[in-house]
Amino acid sequence: AGGVRAASQLGELRLRGMSRAYGAYTALHPLDLTVRGGEFVALLGPSGCGKTTALNCLAGLLPLTAGEILLDGKRVDTVPPEKRGFGMVFQNYALFPHLTVRANVAFGLKMRGVPKAEIQRRVEEVLRLVRLGEHAHKHPGQLSGGQQQRVAIARAIVMEPPLVLMDEPLSNLDAALRLEMRSEIRRLHQEFGLTTLYVTHDQEEALSLADRLVVLDAGRVSQIGTPAELYEHPADPHVAAFMGYRNLLALEVVSARGPEVVAARRGLRLTGTVVGDARVTQGQQVTVAIRPEDVRIAEEGEPRVAEAVAEIVEYHGRVLHVEAVTADGDRVHLRAGREVRPGDAIALAVDAERALVFGAGGAPAGA
Ligand code: ATP
């Protein structure tokens, strides 16, 4: 065998109705998902949505209540965790404190009975790849958080696993290190092409790392798609919120003509575009989603969607982040390119194609 293999050995991972309940509470509703070999898929959702439950089911740490896990067509959900041979990287790195970096990375290969010379070669190669060559003789306690996380990643990669599971691996790192390790993970994934499932509640992390995202809401899939698909076409308000639509306004439909809808409340009247093939009618309650970047202060004579009072103004260099309140108490987040002070009366403008209208029940989720 050569060194560390540069491509995934996995054809596909398929989840068929994978679900998990704790007593009467269903933490994960039946999940169907096919992951191609070499693909990087992020499970994204707020705390408690079932991400860790899904990952632990995959790892074999938690039995399924129903459904199947298939690796290249072979069922593995009844296989014990250590026999699945998956790589695991969690937020607490779980390194052996009394072993050196080198010994930590070599541990799994040793347990597997790989010949000594081969262990040495593979460990050195992986340590070089994660840029820890100079630290190989140290103990975990002598390393920074980022370096420890790299050891945890090296330990997973060296086993050439068919699948790598990562659960919030960067959440214990400070902001600068998170960014650095994020590009490190991206680089390693590009180099090795390891099939990876990555759990996070951070949409920026998910968007920047993953080939595809699975957005979970209360144990159910809201939408599955590429970063661009989710960013451009969120299927429901929950996904929209994750994709930066900070303004989710509950409004009543005044008129609907085709996909174009006018919805209003006191002090706020918006024209937006209906998402999907949902049909809305006059008088119906809808949710209108708009990104703060798409709300601006109206120029003289420009059509306005709302009159509001600026309440919170934050300085962010060239633009100000403003939170304004309408007559009905709706909060609107917007960006201002000119001076605004708390208490100023401002008129707001939004382009109709930038406002997404979700009817009750939302649009159908992606496949
Ligand atoms: P976080 O980001 O906070 O870790 P998560 O999305 O990973 O959240 P899970 O840990 O998968 O969420 O939990 C999903 C739901 O299942 C939660 O409502 C949680 O309270 C519940 N849950 C998790 N473990 C158990 C358990 N052992 N017994 C009962 N309920 C549980």
Key terms:
367 residues, alpha+beta, Rossmann fold, OB fold (Dihydrolipoamide Acetyltransferase, E2P), 6-stranded mixed beta sheet, 20 strands, 35% strand, elongated, disordered C terminus, binds adenosine-5'-triphosphate, Carbohydrate ABC transporter ATP-binding protein, CUT1 family, cell membrane, ATP binding
Tell me the layout of helices and strands:
Layout: E1 12-22, E2 25-36, E3 40-44, H1 51-59, E4 66-71, E5 74-75, H2 81-84, E6 87-90, H3 101-111, H4 116-129, H5 145-157, E7 164-167, H6 175-192, E8 196-200, H7 203-209, E9 212-217, E10 220-225, H8 227-232, H9 237-242, E11 247-257, E12 260-265, E13 268-274, E14 285-290, E15 295-297, E16 306-316, E17 319-326, E18 331-336, E19 345-350, E20 356-358
Parallel strand pairs: 3-8, 3-9, 6-7, 7-8, 13-20
Antiparallel strand pairs: 1-2, 1-4, 4-5, 9-10, 11-12, 11-14, 12-13, 14-20, 15-19, 16-17, 16-19, 17-18
Bound molecules: adenosine-5'-triphosphate.
Domain ABC transporter: 13-243
Protein name: Carbohydrate ABC transporter ATP-binding protein, CUT1 family
Keywords: ATP-binding, Cell inner membrane, Cell membrane, Membrane, Nucleotide-binding, Translocase, Transport
In the CATH hierarchy, what is the architecture of the largest domain at level 2? 3-Layer(aba) Sandwich
CATH third-tier fold name of the largest domain: Rossmann fold
Name the shape in a single word.
elongated
CATH superfamily of the largest domain: P-loop containing nucleotide triphosphate hydrolases
Structural class estimated from helices and strands:
alpha+beta
Number of DSSP E strands: 20
Order of helices and strands: EEEHEEHEHHHEHEHEEHHEEEEEEEEEE
Characterize the largest beta sheet: strand count, sense, and whether it forms a barrel: 6 strands, mixed
Kindly estimate the percentage of residues that lie in beta strands according to DSSP.
Answer: 25-35%
CATH class category label of the largest domain? Alpha Beta
Bound molecules: adenosine-5'-triphosphate
Task: Report mean pLDDT, rounded to a whole number.
Answer: 90
Summed up, the helix count is 9
Q: Largest beta sheet: what is the strand line-up?
A: 6-7-8-3-9-10
Radius of gyration: 25 Å
Outline the low-pLDDT stretches.
Answer: 361-367
The tally of structural domains comes to 2
Terminus-to-terminus distance: 39 Å
